[in-house]
Specification:
The structure is a single chain. The chain is mostly helical. The protein has 2 domains: about 5-250, no CATH class; about 255-390, no CATH class. The chain contains 16 helices and 5 strands. It has helices at about 5-10, 10-30, 40-45, 50-70, 80-105, 120-145, 145-165, 170-175, 195-215, 220-240, 275-290, 310-315, 335-350, 355-360, 365-375, 375-390, and strands spanning about 190, 245-250, 255-260, 265, 300. A 3-stranded mixed beta sheet has the order 3-4-5, with helices on one face. Strand 3 and strand 4 (about 265) form a beta hairpin. The radius of gyration is 28 Å and the shape is elongated. About 40% of the residues are buried. The mean pLDDT is about 90. It comes from Streptomyces zingiberis. InterPro entries: DUF7224 (IPR055648). Keywords: Membrane, Transmembrane, Transmembrane helix.
Length: about 400
């Protein structure tokens, strides 16, 4: 059959137009979640769009399965094998899946910087495997289910499998459909190999099971669900240690550190802002030191494109305890009331824009910080030290009013 005829009779080009429009419409919802400049995050977030791509190709493949069955092209003694007929029939659908995966990544490319690495390639390969598996399963449903429910069953079934696990508390299930990579990655994280291998195995299992269902003879068909169950069980065992996360810590050897007060450690994606970060961090450190506040010796910015307010806030908040006291887990902790005012006071003292700070804390907390800022430096130091003690104990009450402590 000429390829022009294959494309003309296929439903994939028509569904493809709708899918492309939908991916463009959904782009902004994904873009805002990307860690700018970081390829692992770009590739991981692009997997979110599989929620739409996989059902689309499954429905198209089911339609093709119904059409082939009605044409009886696979009955009797055909001149071509089942595999060759199926591949030609599904070629437009597979092409749609590949184009959708490429488009999903392409829509987020403005957020990337530098060159992709092996992890990006592995994530894209996983997405292609998922699309191929859903195509195969949809095709088999079209070949075996009644004509009317075949396409809806493929569409809804694929969508439920791609979308519903994200709402489940059974974490290993969330890892098996290929979309949980959207949980990755911050700058200090990389995609865990387990989070790629496990859904890839499930995709291969679905593909092989679909092929066994179409084989002649009862034996292979009975083997299909057994093989799929083993694949799912093995994949669940692989990802179980990850919990809900698809990431693991990134090696700190990729960071470069410089300076002394504080020492600033940057990931490759942050190095373009190194000079500004050093200026902001040093100034914040000096401002806080002047009022007797000790900050962390090392700073590693969290954002790929940090702002002055971000850096100053991070330097400032390093002066506070990182965890709540043990007593707070079993009883009342009055010092909790001091955390917001102290944080606001530290951040403003470090040189952050007071208007920006006011958007990050409750009005009462900002007002308490502003009253403290009106005092002489010596009194501000005493106010901070007295209230900071309440963050590590449960037997002290914070004193946040404007009166001298």
């Amino acid at each position: 059959m000429p390829w022009s005829t294959v494309l003309r009779v296929s439903i994939a080009p028509r569904i493809g137009l709708l899918l492309v429009l939908w991916l463009f419409a959904y782009r902004d919802s994904v873009t805002e979640l990307v860690t700018r400049g970081y390829w692992d995050s770009v590739a991981g977030q692009s997997s979110t769009l599989l929620v739409w791509t996989a059902p689309a190709v499954a429905a198209c493949a089911a339609w093709e399965g119904v059409r082939i069955r009605q044409s009886r092209a696979l009955q009797g003694a055909p001149a071509r094998t089942f595999t060759s007929v199926s591949l030609v029939t599904l070629a437009p659908t597979l092409a749609l899946g590949v184009l959708a995966v490429v488009l999903s990544l392409g829509l987020l490319l403005p957020q990337a910087a530098g060159s992709p690495d092996g992890t990006t390639a592995a994530i894209v390969a996983l997405q292609l495997a998922v699309v191929t598996a859903h195509t195969a399963v949809g095709y088999v449903l079209g070949l075996h289910l009644p004509r009317l429910p075949a396409v809806p069953v493929a569409l809804v079934g694929s969508f439920v499998w791609m979308a519903y696990p994200a709402a489940m508390n059974v974490f290993w299930v969330r890892q098996l459909n290929g979309t949980n990579l959207a949980e990755c990655c911050e700058l200090d994280q990389v995609a865990a190999p387990r989070s790629i291998i496990a859904p890839a195995l499930v995709a291969v299992g679905l593909l092989v099971a679909a092929w066994l269902v179409t084989a002649r003879g009862r034996g292979p068909r009975l083997l299909a669900p057994v093989l799929l169950a083993i694949t799912v069980a093995g994949s669940a065992w692989i990802v179980n240690p990850l919990g809900y996360s698809a990431a693991e810590p990134r090696s700190t050897t990729a960071r470069t550190c410089s300076g002394a007060h504080p020492q600033i450690c940057l990931w490759p994606e942050q190095r373009a802002a190194a000079k500004d970060v050093a200026t902001w961090a040093t100034d914040a450190h000096n401002r806080l030191t002047a009022v007797g506040v000790t900050t962390a010796a090392q700073l590693s910015p969290r954002a790929s494109t940090p702002t002055s307010d971000d850096i100053r806030a991070q330097v400032a908040l390093s002066a506070l305890p990182g965890e709540i006291p043990a007593c707070a887990r079993t009883g009342e902790w009055p010092g909790n009331q001091a955390h917001g005012p102290l944080s606001a006071w530290l951040t403003i003292t470090a040189g952050a824009d007071p208007e920006v700070v006011a958007t990050r804390y409750a009005p009462a907390e900002v007002q308490a910080a502003e009253r403290a800022l009106e005092r002489p430096p010596q009194e501000q130091r005493l106010w901070f030290r007295q209230n900071a003690k309440t963050l590590t104990r449960c037997d002290l009450q914070p004193v946040l009013d404007a009166e001298r402590p």
